[in-house]
Specification:
It is built from 19 helices and two strands. It is an all-alpha fold. It has one domain. The chain has a two-stranded antiparallel sheet with strand order 1-2. α2 runs antiparallel to α3, α3 packs across α5 and α12 runs antiparallel to α18.
Length: 456
């Protein structure tokens, strides 16, 4: 990201003080990304799982349509948008791959990809000041923090807080028992990994990462004392939820997110804030661990210690490294230009397969999904757009034209790098956490464009 010729150091005061501006679609959208999936927490909603899951993606597509029709001014396009156009063009070509499972499934697969990336186009229309972006981050903290709190309560009192119905993952594997998604608690009881406000065991780990980072950021920010206290409490819940979910990679990634934010803040020469952030982060991580031990018992400590049982490469290989091996050892040579669409994920599960020559494939990490959906070219394009977006956010975070904007950029960059790191263990850019990534990137670009800064 570079400062365009003639860029101003800051817009007029009336344009920047938006903290008291009325709520709009952006705020509703952030809440919807937690509220819609939370409907599955309610009894009797499993028959409606598909439309509920689709609704969280459909709202992003609807917002893009709104932007396309109503945005007359057309904000300055970010550099990442051209990469996304190339990605979508490649996926449209893959629709006609001879091994695409079905045209309907292929269309649904493309729709998921675009719903995840679409906020980069429409979010700038709704976010026009650092204050507005800060408010969105605060709302995101509340949503993720409440989600994490529910996850902690699900271990404390599962009879009251655990959802009555789980996703199809549980029901279809009932004959195998619940061993893979349970552990022995502090009092010898068998506990299901908390889902939070969702219906999949362990799903609270994702919101826990966001709550941990954002909670510490706001706890060390110049906000009201009660907001600092609440932020710290939500951060504690976020870290505790990660421990209790036993999703080890979330612990590693949230540590990376904290380190990135601390490093960028140090680069901004805010040494007092870095010190306060580091001390508070250390205390909160330890405090959350002790809380998790009290609720979850020795199983929590045993799970955490497996991260140190061997060198990091060996630990990763035993967890998800096999999928990486399969991707570059087998799929790269079998399907260098992709294996067709709707071969894995939601599209393969929910839409009928009409091409009998294309049986479903399994993808646990993003590299595998990219290789299946578009081959090495899709992988290069998507990694490229992530790199371009990250570099743009780094330049904004180190821009000295507006300290509030730089602070927001540091937070967005830290949160988004955490999502990007998940490509080694998960498929974030085909899920709602990918929507969060591109929404924050688009929102940050919307603010930057008001300052005459090019990029995303």
């Amino acid at each position: 990201m570079s400062v365009a010729h003639g860029a101003v150091a800051a817009p007029p005061l009336a344009q920047t003080r938006r903290a008291s501006a009325p709520w709009g679609f952006a705020e509703v959208f952030v809440i919807s990304q937690t509220a819609l999936p939370a409907l599955l927490y309610l009894p009797g909603t499993q028959p409606f799982r598909l439309p509920i899951r689709v609704s969280a993606f459909a709202i992003s597509l609807a917002a893009f349509g709104w932007w396309f029709i109503e945005n007359k001014s057309r904000d300055r396009a970010s550099r990442a948008q051209s990469w996304i156009v190339a990605i979508m063009g490649l996926l449209l070509v893959m629709m006609f791959h001879p091994l695409t499972a079905s045209m309907v499934g292929g269309f649904a697969h493309i729709a998921v990809y675009f719903a995840v990336m679409a906020p980069l186009f429409w979010a700038p229309m709704f976010v026009d000041s650092p204050e507005r972006l800060a408010r969105l981050l605060w709302i995101l903290l509340i949503c993720c923090g409440v989600n994490s709190l529910v996850g902690v309560l699900q271990v404390y009192d599962p009879g009251r807080w655990m959802p009555k119905e789980f996703s199809r993952f549980i029901t279809e594997n009932a004959d195998m028992g619940l061993g893979p998604v349970t552990y022995i608690g502090a009092h010898g009881e068998r506990l299901v990994r908390p889902p939070g406000l969702f219906d999949t065991p362990g799903a609270v780990a994702g919101p826990g990462m966001s709550a941990g980072l954002l909670g510490l950021v706001f706890a060390t920010s110049a906000v009201a004392l009660w907001k600092r206290g609440l932020s710290l409490a939500l951060a504690l819940c976020g870290f505790a939820a990660i421990y209790l979910s036993q999703v080890r990679i979330s612990l590693v990634i949230v540590a990376v997110m904290l380190a990135v934010y601390g490093s960028v803040t140090f680069r901004q020469r805010r040494f007092a804030r870095v010190t306060q952030f580091g001390l508070l982060a250390g205390g909160t991580v330890v405090g959350a661990f002790l809380l998790a031990l009290t609720l979850g018992g020795p199983s929590i400590q045993e799970r955490v210690m497996t991260l140190f049982a061997s060198d990091p490469i060996s630990v990763y290989h035993n967890a998800r490294g096999v999928q990486l091996d399969i991707t570059f050892r087998d799929l790269l040579y079998q399907y260098p230009f992709g294996a067709g669409l709707a071969r894995w994920g939601m599209a393969a599960a929910y839409f009928q397969r009409t091409n009998l020559d294309s049986p479903p494939l399994w993808a646990e990490i993003q590299f595998t999904s990219w290789m299946i959906d578009g081959g090495i070219l899709l992988m290069v394009l998507y990694i490229g757009v992530i790199v371009v977006t990250t570099l743009a956010q780094w330049r904004l975070a180190t821009w000295q034209g507006n300290s509030r904007l730089a602070t927001c950029a540091a937070v967005v960059m830290s949160a988004n790098l955490g999502v990007a790191a998940l490509i080694f263990t998960f498929t974030p850019f085909n899920t709602q956490i990918g929507i969060q990534y591109w929404f924050l990137a688009g929102a940050l670009h919307g603010v930057a464009s008001r300052y005459g800064i090019e990029g995303a």
